[in-house]
Structures are given as C-alpha cells and as structure tokens.
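Worked example 4.2. Below are the chains of a multi-component assembly; read each line carefully before continuing.
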Amino acid sequence: MTSPKSQPRTNFVAFKTVLRKEVQRFMRIWLQTLLPPAITMALYFVIFGNLIGSRIGTMQGYSYIQYIAPGIIMMSIITNAYQNVVSSFFGAKFQRHIEEILVSPVPLYYVLLGYVVGGMCRGIIVGVIVTCVALSFTDLKIHSYPITFAVVVITAALFATAGMINAIFARKFDDISIVPTFVLTPLTYLGGVFYSIDLLPEFWRSLSLINPILYMVNGFRFGMLGVSDIPILYAFVVAVGFCIVLGTLALILLYRGIGIRT
Amino acid sequence: MFALELRGLCKTYANGHIALRGVELTVEKGDFFALLGPNGAGKSTAIGIISSLVNKTSGSVRVHGIDIDDDFPRAKTVLGVVPQEINFSQFETPLEIVANQAGYFGIPPGEAHERAEEKLNTAKLWDKRSQPSRNLSGGMKRRLMIARALVHDPKLLILDEPTAGVDIEIRRSMWRFFETLNADGTTIILTTHYLEEAENLCRNIAIIDNGEIVEHTSMKDLLEQLHAEVFRLDYDGDASALPAQLPVEVLSDHTMEVRLAAGRSLNEIFASLSSHQVIVKSMRNKSNRLEEIFVRMVSNDES
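Applying the procedure described above to all two chains together yields the following structure tokens:
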C-alpha cells in the first residue's frame, strides 16, 4: 500500500467510510434520531402556532405560525447536528472503537470532516422533516433559495463542529448533556425563535446580539420570509466566523490527542 | 531494516507515572517475537505508542524503517494491532466492522467487502457476519478483532494478549493460524500471560519490567539459562530406600520430584530408581520452563 500522503483518493475513501458509518448509525436508530424532533416540533406548531399564535396576530407582516416556522426548523437543525456528533463521537470514545480510526492512516482532518458532515446530514434531514410538518400547519414560501440553503449548511456545520468539541472534552455521559441542556437550549430559545428582538427592551435587545444563534435563526428567517432583525451580511459573517474558529479549535484538539490519546 | 525498532522510548504520564524508561528493542522481519512482562510493566504503553494511541514522551519508533515522527500514516499501513480490550462497536455487525476498517485504510467498498469476507471466513465468522457483534462469544470477539487487524494485510502484526479468556481448543486453533500467518511472512509480536504460548510460538523474546527491557534474546538461549529443571514422577514401589545423594524428594507414596541439574541426564536417575525397584509410570515438568525464568527475572528486578 502506498503512502496516504501521495494518495488523496485513499483518504477520500476513508472519509466516505466515516461518513457512511455516521449516516448508517442515525438511520439505524431513526426512532431515536429522526422521529422525536418531528413530534416535538409538531407540538410547538400546535401550541405556539395554532392555539397561542392565533391570538398574537401578525409579526413583521406574517402570521405568528409563519413567523416562528423558520426558527423552529432552524432549532431542530441546530439541535440534531450537535446531538449527532456529540453522542456518536463520545460513544466511539466510550466503547473505544475510535481506536479503529486512530490506528488507521486516515488523517484526522478527514475524521473531523466525516463526523461533521454526518452531523450535518442528520441536521438537514431532520430540518426537511420538520419543514414537512410545518407545511401541514401553514403555507411557507422561500424568499431566497441560495440564502436559505447557505444558512442551513453553514449552521449545521457550525453546530456539528461544536458537538465534536464537546465530545472531545467529555469524559462521562453527563458531560455530553450539560452543554446542550444548560447552554445550547437557552441560547436557542433566546435566539429569536419565537419572537423578534425588536419587541425587547433596549438592554435585553443589546444583550441578545451577543447570542450567535440569533444570527443564524434570523439569517434563515430572511432566506424563507425575507424579514430579519439583523442585516443578513452580519448573519453570514458571524456564522462563517464561528465555523472557522470552532473548526480550527477542533483540529488543534484532535491533533494534540486531547480526549482521544493518552 | 527491522520490522520494529524502538530507541530510547520513554513515556511519562500526566500524573507523573513513568511507564517506559528508555526502551531499546528491535524485532527482525519475519520473526515471531514475544514481549513479556508482568501487569503494569509497560507492554501496552509501548504498543499504544507504536499504534498511535499513546503519545510518547521521547525516543523513536520505526516500523519497517519508517519513523513514526516522519510519516506515521505510512507506518500505519504496514501495521496491524489486536488490542487487549474489546474495542469495536457492539451495535455493528462483524461484516460492517471489518469492511469499515478496510475503508479507513483507503480500500474502496467493493474490495473492502471482498477482503472482509475473506478475513471473516478465515476467522470462521462468516456465518455470523450479520449478527450484532455484542451477541458474539468472547472467543468470537477476539477472532473478529484479529480479522479486522488483518484486513489491510499488514506486514507487522501486534497481538496484545489475543487468547485471553479463550478456551483451549480455540486457543490452539488460533496458534495454528498465527503460525500460518508467520510462515507466510507476517512478522508477529505477541504479548501474553500464557507463557506456554510464548514458548511454543516465539523464536525471540524480550522481557520488560518496570518500563525497561530486562532481557532480549532468542527463546532457545533464554531457556538454556535454566540451571535446573524439576520433574514430577508418578511411581510404584518403595522409595524409602533410595540413596540420599539422589536428587529426589518423595512427596507421597506414589509421587516424587526430581531436580535435574543442567548437564545431567535423566537416564542416570531412572537407572538408579530402577535398581531400587522403583518403577516410573509417568513424568511431567513441574512448571513451565519459561515461566520459571520469567518469574526469576521479574522477581530479581523487584528486589
């Protein structure tokens, strides 16, 4: 066998293997991975959209259910992209089958890419499922396909990478639920999923601007509805900036062997 | 060029524990090599460094002439490792596990499937290929790890206690398999606590204790270091009249031990026993020869 250094094709095969394994994993357990978000988000649409939303009236020119639909879809993408990588990579560490990859010549940046793209696949598939659920409650139009698609891909990549960093540091099962429960969920709920930050007092509005999820939710809302609390360019700058920072951090951690080598 | 060359290999863990203290070790290509040592001696740390699961503190490792600091990915292409602990996904099937491993080595899916079939057949696991691996028996799990380690046809195979917890019948069939692999040109490094296994299979040996190599020689030379062997004899007759200078110790009415110094013949003992109407019915080594040397070396070192 020739050197992987001179064989990008063999590295690509290895990447596809990591990716296929990731996709097979969440498809095999679809009852745990794909179905629950569909049910949870359907409940959001019933309660916040139909029951409460009908009394709220319009928001930025859209009915409340139409206004929150992009936020709910984005919330499911964020949660599932993150959850897929954090549970899969930590599971691989816990059961020690991460060693299968470590003893092989596949470069670690391909390993990161395989896990992240796997997480993106789950996030996007769940996003499509939740969109179908949303369509059964209300009409949705797409204001800009390129912006919608780009925001989804970048956000899924960002939170899949964040899940990887969480998994790298995690030593026990508690560690993979602390960040989603105490950081990710509050940030998502306070990230303008259910409201426009224009409704907030000035202090809380300003504070909301340091929440990165706000930019992605509003970027996606702009792609679908054409309305946003923040300029779309800012949304891309923040999302891409976080992607680069977290991607670099994940690579540094992997190459230093943090959490995977003794 | 050696199959494996360790020079001044040191490992100090973050908690200050020194696992390896300048290990010097060479393994010739084609060798069947035993790396023995008590628990905690540093065997698994050394194997971990060679296979990239443990970061070394200092020193060098060359696998088939490739320095892991220069090109670890290429070194890994010639290396297969069977670890001590089960380390595959319990939710995947044997076919998925072995085919995925081929994929990590850059083998395309079609060929990966063919190789997985071949290796699983060799490991007598093909009929279990679609079962969740958690349902396999302990011996099957070990054979699965061997099949997985061989899927990219490594030139150097490291077996870290491959037969631990395996029944004697399967162990012996695994020995035959390892011998065939070695005869076909694969260099094998074996760590084991079954010293009979090492004595039967390996041509050269190193003993590691407290992070240092305390012996590195051929199995033949090592066994010749024994100054005496102890045999246990089952006999009929009256042993009470045996001469005092005969190196025997009567244990019961039908059992005695003979301590045979190096260079002395068993024939002399038998002749003497026979002349006193003591009939030897059966004979066996009291302990494994390698075990005796091993215990001596390790306990010397401890003192």
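Take a moment to check your reading of the output against the notes. Residues 72 and 214 of chain B are 28 Å apart (CA to CA). The first strand of chain B starts at residue 4 and ends at 12.
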